[in-house]
Write a structure and sequence with these properties.
The structure is a homodimer of 425-residue chains. Chain A is of the alpha/beta class and 425 residues long. In chain A, 40% of the residues lie in helices and 14% in strands. In chain A, helix 1 runs antiparallel to helix 13 and helix 4 packs parallel to helix 5.
């Protein structure tokens, strides 16, 4: 294999013919594979089935204070579940609120709260045009929340160790910039972890908006897939040092620890923010599902239980990531038309192809039966300005299917790149 | 016992002395009883424990379409759970959305949606002062939601068969009146069911506001405690006849069918409203807890299963209601200082004492160790203009404790009434 850009026009045309033929034979296989979302596979779900038996007539339905979890009450989570999340996020239990099954819902709800009731200042919906900073490529559902509420999104490029802090520091001088969404550890989709330097600079921001909020979506906090664990600084003590205690709200869940459809979500925040969120919650609900909280707390006991458990997920996920990485290396390593990340954790591999090619690659994959996250989805408004980023989610398909899907993806990358080079010649 | 108002001053003073003595001896018992919230008792919760075993490795985790409920996906509820609620609420499954464990949360969220995104018109938060109609006595948490969002509440008196429709028809001529909250069956706290006439008049309303919404909280739709079942007309067909299809959103949950802390909630609405709510949901969550939906659907199978099951709750609740009603009749029946409802279902008995006495009765009860819902809570802003309504929640305490609590309540009503009459003499 050669570097495509150095090939002659004739070589490219010959290669295009060969790749097209290969592609047609892939199509004939009538594949139906999905690498679009960060869904755990059935093998991962199976290791958690026992959790469902951890609350029953023998073990009883009472939390450690004796409260009957079947009944109404306990707004912010049962103590043992708050403690579990406090250990995971390295905060005090009083700074934890345990929610329902979805941290996305808690994030959505916090933005909804800011819209109608503000974040210690005027409601955002009464402040005219407001904006959010969006490190990208990023998580499409963060962008979806902002778009739903009509909050203007400002794309901030991701560097190797996190978002471009120079751009962020410049933008927060604008008082209409009200916040930022980010995934600081094993980021979605690149699997990058913010460096100490980046975390320190975020904690030390001096936004013109006093109601500036960082939505710190720590979805992958314990989700290592390699033995090399990335380390993320705890941002809260740093915020306190900078008199920014109320600036960060952290979110996480067990969606990719236990069950995506029946896990438990939580947030961590300053005393002020906890009080404001609880005030809303006291009008919003009598309490979230405490039996499910009890199941989780009993099953894991503490953060060590969680960490041990995550090794079982890693054992399933690591070969899947490796299969995709091997396929990328073998097929595209010498071509010079693609680069990709090699994350130590999280759920995604981020693939960058030649500018202007990502949408076409996804379209070809789809026509041959392999679904990818829609190209562009990793950018605000679904608009990848260079049309080059593709998010690969290797978790869901079994390894043999995954290999096939990755083969097809590589083939499509090659085919689209070659066609583009021919066009440009 | 005599009618208090006909007693002489001397008789009243003597009675006051006697009642005070009785009250002091009650206080000496150091009671600690709770009749404040509509919480099922532990005996009611126990009958549902088997539900928790209805989803396990043997029975599997897939819904009837084969979808793995442990994983992400299925925004609006698994089919068998949608069908179950559709049968309960007598609508089509396509007009059902199944949520998390709290219908209050779904109501809160719908109002939040109207605030920022409107109900087919301008967002409510952009329409200046807006108002809601509140039949009262009513459910304090409805009023809490409205107060949280700064929506002005207009109290509408409850008559024997529902809210005063003349007042409602007059008020909806004001375009700033955007909706109404109500509990149409076995209402909270009076246990009244809206008559056919009232339901028809609500369905036929011609509000000036095109974005007027009726929050039809059918929390007690299958919650009979007597063999005489109240019947509530299905409002949706009537709305359609009046070109008001989008005016009503109906809510219910299994909180008082299975577990208050771990049930399943649902709403029913027109196609238009369902589409608008789903659009929001698609940004808000990847889906609610489907394993819990599956537990409920498997456990009950259909509405007949639910109806049979509710007889077991009735068998526990009926003696509790009877104990309170007997106590009220025996102690206050001849005094002429109180009247109360005798509901066929729901969770409450509503007690009206002499004007200006409810707060004092609740205070005396509390000082002797029996907690009631705060007097006034059944009215908007916690302000019962006559200070006469007390909500009794007989479900939680065991019968012997309940009898004691009801005895004390009756004693306090007598004592406060007598003192008031002495004062007025």
């Amino acid at each position: 294999m050669a570097v495509y850009e150095k090939m002659s026009a004739a070589e490219l045309v010959a290669l295009e013919k060969e790749l097209s033929k290969e592609y047609e034979s892939f199509k004939a296989k009538n594949l139906k594979l999905d690498m679009s979302r960060g869904k755990p596979g059935a093998d991962q779900l199976d290791i958690t089935n026992e959790l469902l038996n951890s609350v029953n007539e023998q073990s009883g339905y009472r939390d450690e204070t004796g409260f009957d979890c079947r009944n109404y009450g306990v707004l912010d989570g049962i103590p043992e579940c708050k403690r579990l999340f406090a250990e995971i996020l390295e905060v005090e239990p009083k700074n934890i609120i345990v929610g329902g099954n979805s941290s996305l819902n808690m994030m959505f709800d916090y933005i909804a709260q800011c819209m109608t009731h503000g974040a210690g200042a005027e409601p955002w919906c009464k402040q005219g045009e407001i904006k959010f900073l969006c490190p990208a490529p990023g998580y499409d559902r963060h962008f979806g929340i902002l778009e739903y509420f009509g909050i203007e999104m400002i794309t901030v490029p991701m560097k190797e160790d996190g978002p471009d802090m120079d751009i962020i520091e410049e933008n927060v001088k604008d008082p209409s910039v009200k916040g930022m969404f980010c995934v600081p550890k094993y980021s979605n989709p690149e699997g990058k972890t913010f460096s100490d330097e980046v975390v320190k600079r975020i904690a030390a921001l001096k936004p013109a908006a006093k109601d500036f909020r960082v939505m710190w979506d720590n979805a992958y906090c314990v989700h290592h897939i390699s033995e090399n664990h990335d380390e993320l600084l705890n941002i809260f003590p740093l915020c306190r040092e900078n008199n920014n205690s109320d600036m960060v709200i952290e979110f996480t869940s067990t969606s990719k620890i236990t069950f995506p459809g029946a896990g438990v979500a939580a947030l961590a925040a300053s005393d002020n923010n906890i009080a404001m969120i609880k005030k809303r919650m006291s009008m919003q609900t009598i309490g979230y599902d405490k039996l499910n909280q009890l199941r989780h707390a009993r099953y894991f006991k503490d953060v060590n239980g969680v960490n041990e458990y995550m090794k079982r997920h890693a054992a399933i996920l690591a070969p899947k990531f490796q299969a995709v990485l091997d396929c990328l290396e073998n097929n595209l390593g010498q071509t010079g038309v693609a680069k990709w990340t090699k994350p130590n954790g999280g759920y995604f591999i981020s693939l960058d192809v030649m500018d202007g090619c990502a949408k076409e690659v996804a379209a070809l994959c789809s026509q041959a039966g392999v679904n990818l996250t829609p190209a562009g989805a990793t950018y605000p408004y679904g608009n990848d300005p260079k049309d080059c980023n593709i998010r690969i989610a290797p978790s869901y398909p079994p390894v043999d299917e995954l290999k096939l899907a990755a083969e097809l993806l590589c083939l499509c990358v090659k085919l689209v790149s070659v066609r583009k080079l021919i066009e440009e010649n």
